[in-house]
Amino acid sequence: MADRMQGKVALVLGAGSSGPGWGNGKAAAVLYAREGAKLVAVDVRQSAAEETADIVTAEGGEAIAFGGDVTDESQIQRIVAETLSRFGRIDVLHNNVGITDIGELEDISKERWQRVMDINLTGALLAAKAVVPAMLRQGKGAIVNISSTAAVHINDYTYFSYSASKAGLNHLTRALAIRYAKSNIRVNAIMPGLMNTPLIHKQIAGAYVDTAAMMAARDAKSPMGRMGDAWDVAKAALFLASDDAGYITGVCLAVDGGLTCFNG
Question: Is 162 among the residues known to form the active site?
Fold first, then answer.
């Protein structure tokens, strides 16, 4: 176990995986713990959070798990309070919760639009609102928001609410970063590009003839000729959350194999 996060407490929202394998939140949570952090794993599915926490404890780390809905402010406030009661501090808030909703404009109801906004954007705001007071008392902290390259360029998918919510998350990231810069609270975002995670098999596969076609098409779109994976996102998150990034705030970092350069 390394020590880039030694003595820190990491609260990861969306720490489970939407299917078998490694999602972005699950990989980041485990990597934080491997680097010495005490992990608080939160997922809307309690079992998914527990699976991640069990991996950490099996490796000799310390982790607790909660089920929680990021759109419910009372639940987030409760989880933050219980984390502070257990560990006394929160050094890293990692916002990984997000969904897609593919559909043509005429099919997108107000309710579908609002659901994506609530989960992808409002949830991150509510989490920051709950955690920042503790970071202010500590005199430091780091927030890492998981956005998307869809925030800055348009691709082939018709997920209008997803693109808009992630663009909003980018700007929320920058606004929070400037507001709390003098308080030594750093706020950054990661914009994954074409990634091979369980989420795409659950939420995007329907846009293709079959899984093989999806994998081939997404690999081909990357300038590097392949998709990235959850560990690429996790390693970037670890850097931004660690003291190695102590003078970095307000950055929306593309982890995309050059995709946004190519299509930007």
Answer: yes
